[in-house]
Amino acid sequence: MTEDLSQTDLVEHNNTSLLTHQCGEVARSSAFADSQIWTFLPRSLRQTKGGLMCWMANTHITPLHDVKHTDEERDRLNEHGLIIYLYEPMCSYIMNDTRALGNGFNCGFYSEYPSDYDAWDDNRSAELDSISYYAFQNNLTNVTVRTGDYGVENYYPYYSEQLKLECDDLFLHGLSVFDHINTKKKNYDEITADFICTSWRYTPARNIIAAALSRKNSNISWFYQVDNKVLDNIQWLTLSEEKDDAALYKQLVFGLDRLNQRSPWCLDKYTETTVWIEEPYGHFYPKSIKGFEDYANPVSVNPYVLPLETYYRKSFVDVVCESRFAQPTANLSEKVFQAIQFKTPFILVAPPHSLRYLKEMGYKTFDTWWDESYDAEEDHSKRMKMIIKLINEYAELPTETKVQQLEEMWEVFRHNFDLHVKNTPIKRLREYSAIRWNEIQDKQWVAEVEMDPTTGRPLGWE
User: Fold this and answer.
1) Per-10-residue mean pLDDT, the chain, length 462
2) Global confidence as pTM
3) What is the DSSP string of 12-52?
4) Chain centroid to CA 94: how far?
5) Domain residue ranges of the chain, discontinuous segments joined by +
6) In angstroms, rounded to a whole number, what is the distance separating the alpha carbons of residues 155 and 256?
7) Which residues contact 173 (CB under 8 A, 6 or more apart)?
8) CA 437 from chain center: how many Å?
């Protein structure tokens, strides 16, 4: 257990993880003006007399804990307001959770919720704890927190008297689509798999989905070997001895065995090493993948070089496993928008109302072709069962039916793609040929491309 607990601590973040603007002494952290994030904000916010912050990391915002504003700073922030953006999903937890680890979370660096949980007065967030403490210490009365957690204002009543909580996802504001992407219809004769499912970090929900897909015609990335007991210890999964549950449990056990026998399952990132999982905690990452050890993530690379495009064009449906599953607030990421940019229909393995959140943004989903009622199911165990039932039913469809569905979905693909491009900062496709090497933030990417030994830059780049 000591070894597990040591892995629940994320990489220690220094003050540069907190971007600030017009916040007085806090500006010693890192300025918005030095970050591209600044360009994602509405112009009205860039010109405000109020304060702006953005927390780029997970968990407690430690740079705020010792901040003490002057009276002048406090009065200005109270008059004109302070807006704090959370770039990552919140790390929520349950007060007095009997399943919590030593850090207070029950799933690594965040918590997952039992399917019948409704005691929202006990619901907390590490980030909101820090902001609330900072506001109290400085007598701040006009603080708004904007996060990508949909419905945040409904599920964290503990903070409602001190903080105004809103859903406004700064991460989504910064997504780009590049003009070298293939926007043509798929060649149906080249489709070789029913499903594609790309996972990086381990989570219990991704484990279940990977097990369900492992015995089907699927393109999967999976870097783990998992002890069978993990299925029995997932915080929110409840399986009875009834016929349907017994059949599902059998499917998952056999699927997990196949996962373990063939692991690692590699697509665009190759390794011969697996990570052993003994507990259902979401703090395990792939190891021994050159350039992406520990907490590194290839997500920042995908928009530039599109390593997964060939797999998407050979797959009918994307089973999108979002970052979180068993929590009340939906949170969308580049994962579902990757399916949109590759014009692939998707089944969304995510918190309840994630499809509703997507539709409220103007996107269309696929309820014309299959049952999406799983999205409204707030019982996490039942929602997962409905998703697996849908996967099983789709796998049994004749290939001719799947091809016909793709043809019928084309207008949905075009609508979603065009809207996604319109929602990017420049509201159009970015020119791939105009990207400069110094724009790439993830320097680890150099391990994944062929380098020019003279310039030290990727071959073919300016």
Assistant:
1) 31 64 76 78 82 93 93 96 96 96 95 95 98 97 98 97 97 92 95 97 98 97 96 92 90 96 92 94 90 72 80 98 97 96 98 98 98 98 98 98 98 98 93 70 43 49 41
2) 0.90
3) PP-GGGEEEES-GGGGGSEEGGGSGGGGGS-HHHHT-SSEE
4) 21
5) 2-173, 188-434
6) 34
7) 40, 41, 423, 425
8) 26
